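[SOLVED] Need 3D model of a two-part complex

Original post:
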Amino acid sequence: MRAMELPPSLAEWFASRHWSLHPHQHEMLDRADEPALLLIAPTGGGKTLAGFLPTLADISANGHEGLHTLYVSPLKALANDIRRNLRIPIDEAGLPIRVEDRTGDTSQTARKRQRADPPHILLTTPESLALMMSYPDADRTFKGLKRVIVDEIHALAENKRGDQLMLALSRLQTLAPGLRRVGLSATVDDPAAIAHYLARHPDPCPILHADPGPPPDIDILRTDEIPPWAGAGGRYAIPTILSEVKAHKTTLIFHNTRAQAELFFHALWLANEDDLPIGIHHGALAREQRHRVEQAMAAGDLRAIVATSSLDLGIDWGDVDLVIQVGAPKKVKQLVQRIGRANHRYNAPSKARLVPANRFEVIECRAALEAVREGQLDGDLRRDGPRDVLCQHIALVACAGPFRDADLFAEIKTVGVYADLSRAAFDECLDFVATGGYALRAYDRYQRLKEREPGLWSLRDPRAARQIRMNLGTIIDTDTLKVRFRGRGGQPLGEIEEGFAATLTPGETFLMGGQVVRYEGLNQMTVEVSPRPDKEPRIATYIGYKQTFSIQLAERIQQILNDPGRWDALPWHTREWLALQRENSLLPEPGRLLVESFPRDGRHHLCLYGFAGRNAHQTLGLLVTKGMEEAGLDPMGLVATDYAVLIWGLQPVRDVRPFLSHDGVHDALESWLAGNAVMKRTFRAAAVISGLIDRNFPGKRTTGRQATFSSDILYDTLHRYDPDHLMLKITEEEAMRGHIDFGRVDLLLKTVGDRIDQIALDRVSPLSAPLFLEPGRVPIAGKGENRLIEEEAARLMEEAGLGALPA
Amino acid sequence: MRNEHSFTFAGETLVALPSGALWWPEASLLCVSDMHLGKSERMARRGGALLPPYEVRDTLRRLQADLETLDPAAVISLGDAFDDMEAATALDADARDRIAAMIEGRDWTWVTGNHDPAPVAFGGHAAEGLTCGPLSFVHIATRTGRHEVSGHYHPKASLSLRGRHVSRPCFLRDATRLILPAYGTYTGGLRSRDRALSGLMAPDARAILAGQPMVEIPMPR
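Solution:
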């Protein structure tokens, strides 16, 4: 029995194109009445259409006034793309359905109109939805809503954007009680966890698996060129990559970071003697630039496109027949999804080639490849709902109008990740939003919400809604500045990090959107540039996406390292490199902890190979730096990956063992952690998300005397005067799940015991070299820093000729 | 050695303290600028963020510590002691008592700032500026000032330590001007590179970083 039938005109349109529905698309129609349904399908399986079929069928058969279906995806570009694709069957089959999208790019007038007169299908992002729901007319806008489709839910479920979305859905469910939820997901490790995430708790959520299609054709690209020892760009392989591009119709070339994509594109362009049409696409480029590339791609005008994760998620690129991944994929899942870009014909295998950027990455690629072939995925742990997001949600609910605390609490408990939230934990958040939640209650002005009658809350001053809306969102970005060509109406090019902009002097050149540009100056917080193709660029740094590989991959890498029998699968140069590590140092062994110490660049370095995951390594690093500080060894900083941690300081560490006692790791670290940059960063993010401090808006920053001050001051003040404050509790909660992994460190130290092999080297070891390329360094502020400050001050005075003058 | 920085200005020996206060031993005079007491209260009152309401307590705690260490006969608050007039009247009883106790027995001057007329209700006396020996004290540096001590700008300076940035509130000094950092706990800083400061200070100006450790560097510009 079919719950819904394809509308006849749409059935005819399919027939006229000789298309027939996939079984899972049929089943989506059959099960249109499920309160929640999760579809897991590979890219190219018509997943999105499957999600929309019940909507098309329902509106065609029964008509509908106002908003019928809400489609939410993590990317603006995806909303755009889906609108284009959905219009084709709707227009050509003559269905009476209005589709619009609403993202950060939608104009103010269009937004207003959409709230008053919503389309049948609205395509949006979690942030835009949260914003719509914060207006007092939200109940009218969403009253008749019947379905919500969450696309790429596997990506959203990993982070706070998804948590914010699920809180918004709990509100929607109250406004539109019959609401049906559909989740669309790529292959995931734990479908049940995603289903739990999607459904209204405690409703069940059936899972529908589409035929996964033939296994991908994936391998490491054979190159005549030898990868360098260290380095991240993969530019050595450009000749081979160019000939692959020539041999295929359309090639997608993925990079792990924007800076690498820019450098690679520039080098590729210089080597492109046949003038093949090649484009670049990443999230730091201006919208106009991205649209141009997207359109050229959709029209089939490009032979290759160099891209970052902005293309990871489901954007339809038509006839891609080869995906090249430059640099080792940091997560198996990401690799699988990137492969999914290739070959959208459902029944043909996807073709993908990996290009390791250096010799260590050859091993990483090998490990990732084996994992894909064996169907092993990363196994992300699901977590409890974060409370900073909850604080933001409560404030947004208040923006929409008065609410009852008991109702809101009950509603929040229907969100899977908040199902275990206690009333006391909720009340703390409510109190924080209402009054700041401080132990000191002297000022009656400290009131954002007023309790009008017992249990009924509303904004004290409705004008506060503006500030709350402006700070909406859970993505914490580094501050960036817009880049434009100089002159009136200069073409926008994208964004660069403010920190990088601050290092530029007029006349210097950098890469932006694949072209070399010259820095002219800063005008009203916009970086003005002019084209300068003849110059060598400086490297542009973009928002540094911190990517480390998963613990599963780290373990595989350790297995390969340890088993010379498996080295046969590696190219000769990598085998040679590993042999070199064995000769100059040691290979890490399971059950033992290898520690290398060596000088480099005027610092003493210590590298510990724990293969225990980045968080555990960060904690391990903090433990060691604490010991070093107490022993007067002047630690300066550390950087952690999933397989090792690298620590540097001003004095050599002759014996690391005393610093690695497993007794009371937690207690030992508590006070050291409190003052550490990791905690301060965590605090800042939590404080921005929960609305304690405002986001920085580049255009709005005050000039002249600064009105803002560092969030570190607030952190220190709370520590001193209000140590039980909610914001410090959230910081600790976030640190425990995000950055600090006491449990695993404890386990590692117990397992290893005294089986610690410390080896002193006179230079960087082959295995530690990749750590020097790792972003996300954590500074240690101690006596070592003080010494450097004094030395640098003396040097500067000397240089300025002020040192010798009388004071 | 104590963490402080002595220097000569207008022929007098002055001491920059890590707290951001200026100590003139010869005159037994302590000078602090831009305390901005009541900032969090003012922000909350105006519908802004609800910041931790502890900065009055913290600023006074640090001032008290400086007073106890040095026991000055005279104190100058160099303007913007309160974030605005209403912030001054909204102080809680405890804070008012503490301020009154600090003023007791001292020659205390409130120099008026651009945020606050002088809050003489607490005791002490008000002045738009004053001269003490060779030094003159005003809130905002004047174009023609000579041997002038001022505040207002909240100067800060940064040091680059091979891949690491240290940024701190600072004293700025050249032969004719001395600018104090903001003393208040909730006060941001203005980079010394800003035109407002680099245009004011002579080319050979120096910056003394407050905090730990105190060092003197050529003023970054």
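Edit: Residues 55-70 of chain B form the longest helix (16 residues).
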